[in-house]
Amino acid sequence: MSVTRRQVLARTGVVGSQIAFVGALSELFAGTARARVHSGEHGYGPLVPDPAGLLDLPQGFRYRVLSREGEPLRSGEGTLPGNHDGMGAFRARGGRTLLVRNHENKHSARLGVPTVPELTYDPLAKGGCTALELDRHGEVLSERVAIAGTAVNCAGGQTPWGTWLTCEENEDRAGTNGYTKDHGFVFEVDGADPHRTGAVPLTALGRFQHEAIALDPRTGIVYETEDAFDRPFGLFYRFLPVSPLGGLGSLQAGGRLEAMRVPGVPDLSSIDEPGASFDRVEWVPVPDSQARQTPIRLQDFGTRGITHAQKLEGCYWGGRSVYFVSSFARSAEGSARDHYGQVWKYEPHRRRLTLVIVFGPDTDIQLPGESPDNICLAPSGGLMVCEDGDGGQHVYGLTRHGRVYALARNRQTIGTPQEPEWGEFAGVAFAPDGRTMYVNVYRPGTTFAITGPWR
């Protein structure tokens, strides 16, 4: 059964990392016992206050600020925008590392991604991606626009051939909010040479409020999450390309988009027992993947319906499975039950869906440590989870043994002294050699490189 954060804290006596996990990732953690909260015993120790007031880390860890919003882009193309979100890390030539970073800018953003010829989809949209190239010592060599003119670029995912798929969490039509083109698409971005990919929407992957993707490296199937806050909530999709694993540009050849149906489960929030699994997951063709008249989540999927979930966000591939996150569910907003986050695992070879982690709801008090967003696999096993909730914001680690520890805390406030707020973390990713963790703070837009005694 799931438990509240108050119950977990009462049993452990921990007040530093206030987050409740239940269940364990079978491929990453040992056993199936409840994940427990620990402050340092199974992590890297307590967080040390940062004298500079930017980022608290455990003893022995250091950070470097790679770039911040408002600074000039090194390419001379303009000013670096904010709203730093999803990010991918790639191996580049000569031992270098390439970062491709999303900017989740709405039409009202103060500072948009600078428009660049042949890299701009809609000149009146302010989202997009920037790319940073780092030398083997972690110094920034270049920073430039990778794609512009897209809208609300939230998360995305990496391809086996070394490109970034950036996702628009927006489904405005041309003429809405001043846009000149339809939005709600995925775009492929080659951070090393953006002009190879340009600004071409991968329309076959559907038009909806995209959040993140994960690509099966064996089959080329793309799994996609839809972040819909209001009812009807989002869907979990898969895209079957006609040219599986075809390399750069292959996704433009098209394919078939399908949505997940779990028989007897119209709403994933109704499941709250870790380990609950469903062996006959079905995939239903999407009637109109371009949502020409009706958003996909509102379309008619037949008398048996389709499975929805509130706030589907992070998505990644690990082992032989795809993992995805429901950031929270609120019954007051139409979900079947409340929770502060779920992590689900889908095993394609078994057609099995399993609930592996639940962030337990607590209706009595509000504490930090809720609403998982971007997630990634740590090189030594376990997960890194970006928090996107109320109060202080952290990057949490989950060990192989199902224990939780705080790895970083954002100290930059964006509210008033009377009502301080802290920007969420996003875009957590590790360098190809596993020695550096990169992560963004959404506001004020900041990209950090974190090094230390990783295990």
TrEMBL record:
InterPro entries membership: PhoX, TAT_signal
Family annotation (Pfam families): PhoX
Protein name, UniProt field: PhoX family protein
SUPFAM superfamilies with a match to the protein in the record: Thermostable phytase (3-phytase)
